[in-house]
Design brief:
The chain is α+β, with helices and mostly antiparallel strands and 225 residues long. It has helices at 2-6, 15-34, 39-59, 139-142; strands spanning 8-10, 61-63, 73-75, 80-90, 96-105, 112-114, 119-127, 145-152, 157-164, 172-174, 181-182, 187-191, 195-201, 214-215, 221-224.
């Protein structure tokens, strides 16, 4: 168990945040240690500072996972809980009905997003927007978001993945470029401090997950082709 916990590294998206936070906390503690305050209170404040830094660091953890590409399955694009499974209109790219599977990422989840399938990146687009709570029904169309479409040309199959910012999450990173070939399970992007990831599949896709189920990005099978 301990060995598994140690197999965790900090994601590159967290380097700047953690360095700035460490400097600020060090300066704050230097000031506190320079004035005459109760030693017990001083140790308590130091403990709070270290705990706060470690809590923020946990947001950027990226555990090592064994991910094996399989052209016959669709993997979860994010860690979290499935909060919606429904048929909806997808007007941005498909212009028709699609099967939506929505994954809510809490601050406690791993925040890296992964590619559900291998294939070619057919479309990417960033949309500025609002910051409604991630589980709000209109957050998928009104919030800041980043849309990516991956096509498996051999199977004539394509999916849309949408990263959505929430009330707390204020930065979406997406690493894809249109036209590039990508591998299932590799990093798609990162959403700081949680939020939501939607995946749009063809209507009739047989799902292997259910509502309120907890999933792991790059490991849980969403559906089989």
């Amino acid at each position: 168990m301990l060995k598994n916990r140690l197999r965790v590294t900090i994601h590159k998206e967290g380097y700047k945040t953690l360095i700035v936070l460490a400097v600020l906390l060090l300066l704050a503690n230097a000031v506190l240690f320079s004035i005459h305050i109760d030693p017990v209170l001083r140790r308590f404040l130091l403990f709070v500072s270290v705990s706060s830094w470690m809590a923020v660091a946990s947001f950027f953890r990226i555990p090592k996972r064994a991910i094996q590409a399989n052209d016959n399955i669709i993997l979860a694009p994010a860690d979290g809980k499935i909060v919606a499974i429904e048929e909806v209109e997808e007007p941005e790219y498909f212009g028709d009905k699609r099967l939506l599977v929505s994954i809510f990422m809490s601050p406690a989840n791993v925040h890296v997003n992964r590619l559900p399938i291998s294939g070619k990146v057919a479309y990417t687009k960033y949309h500025p927007g609002n910051y409604l709570v991630a589980w709000h029904p209109k957050s998928s169309t009104l919030n800041e978001r980043f849309t990516s479409v991956i096509v498996d040309e051999a199977k004539d199959f394509e999916i849309l993945v949408r990263q959505i910012a929430g009330k707390v999450a204020r930065k979406i990173s997406n690493y894809l470029e249109e036209g590039e070939q990508v591998l299932q399970g590799n990093e798609l992007g990162f959403i700081k401090f949680g939020s939501r990831v939607d995946i749009f599949l063809p209507v009739g896709t047989e799902l292997k997950v259910s509502l309120k189920q907890k999933v792991k990005g790059g490991q849980t099978i969403i559906a089989e082709l």
